[in-house]
TrEMBL record:
Key word ATP-binding present: no
Protein name, as recorded: PEGA domain-containing protein
Pfam families: CarboxypepD_reg (PF13620)
The keyword Transmembrane belongs to this UniProt entry's keyword annotation: no
Cross-referenced Gene3D superfamilies: Carboxypeptidase-like, regulatory domain, Glutaredoxin
Record GO terms (molecular function): carbohydrate binding
Species lineage: Eukaryota, Metazoa, Porifera, Demospongiae, Heteroscleromorpha
Length: 259
């Protein structure tokens, strides 16, 4: 109780102190600085198609940044101000592209979009991406699918690891490529998909072994993986650890030179 009283007294003193100091220009500026808002929101609506999920992808300079799935309305928040292309697509429908400018601190409402059915037959691919060891889904991973002609389709996994590629060429071998930080780069051959069908795929990524972070002068601990390195031999020729891995045991000795 004594302590609380002491604190109260102290804060009253401080308060009084602040009050008498209002003539000080330094104190007057406190609390008036504004936080600059550099992001905005995009909002829109797509004429719903019975039971069909609509993919909304946001690209900047041709690079896929974020993606969301919807039945009708969508909202992309915290988007850095700038110019973007919004791709709206659904299975069996022509992809619609809209160029948009995101303004800081504002919500941009886009016109309602109606998708038009595709005239040509297409196929689709959907799947789940998981960590091979833990079975946990991996979200926010960029996946690229390449067709025979070299055309690249791009998508991002959802938080539940789900990925969707819609409107792919029919009966064509495709290659799925996944390069994600911390995992082995993975390539999956996708079998040709018949018209109007959706191939379901389960893909697993193998985590790369973690490399020990070392302070200068600190040795590796027993059983840990050595970092890749190159060192000059006695004749000044560079030798890499990778040259020996798998066929020899490696012993490193540091030779002080002759003098
Ligand atoms: C975005 O596009 C508008 C024209 O639509 C242009 O005036 C503006 O400079 C562009 N902004 C950026 C950051 O490229
Ligand atoms: C969007 O802008 C790009 C150039 O940044 C242009 O090539 C493309 O035709 C535009 N798309 C639409 C739908 O206006």
């Amino acid at each position: 109780m004594k302590r609380i009283q002491a604190l109260l007294a102290l804060s009253l003193l401080l308060f009084a102190g602040l009050n008498c100091g209002t003539e000080n220009p330094v104190e007057e500026t406190v609390g008036t600085s504004t936080v600059e808002i550099s992001t905005g929101t995009l909002r829109g609506e797509v004429q719903s198609i019975d039971g069909v999920l609509i993919q909304v992808r946001l690209l900047r300079d041709g690079q896929l940044l974020t993606q969301t799935e919807t039945q009708a309305t969508y909202e992309l928040a915290s988007i850095e101000a700038g110019n973007y292309t919004l791709q709206i697509s659904a299975k069996g429908y022509e992809t619609k592209e809209v160029n948009v400018t995101v303004t800081p601190g504002q919500v941009v409402s886009l016109d309602k979009v109606a998708l038009v059915a595709l005239a040509t037959p297409v196929s689709h691919l959907r799947g789940v991406l998981r960590d091979k060891a833990t079975g946990e889904p991996i979200g926010e991973v960029n996946l690229q699918l390449t067709d025979k002609a070299g055309k690249v389709y791009e998508t991002l996994t959802t938080g539940a690891g789900v990925f969707t590629f819609e409107n792919l060429p029919v009966e064509q071998a495709l290659t799925l490529t996944i390069a994600h930080a911390g995992y082995e780069e993975t390539e999956v051959a996708v079998h040709p998909i018949p018209a109007a069908e959706t191939l379901e795929l389960r893909v697993q990524l193998t985590r790369l072994p973690e490399q020990e972070k070392l302070d200068p002068g600190q040795g590796l601990s027993l059983g840990s993986q050595a970092p890749a390195f190159e060192l000059p031999d006695g004749n000044g020729k560079l030798k890499a650890l990778a040259d020996y891995v798998g066929n020899k045991n490696v012993v490193i000795t540091f030779y002080r030179g002759g003098w």
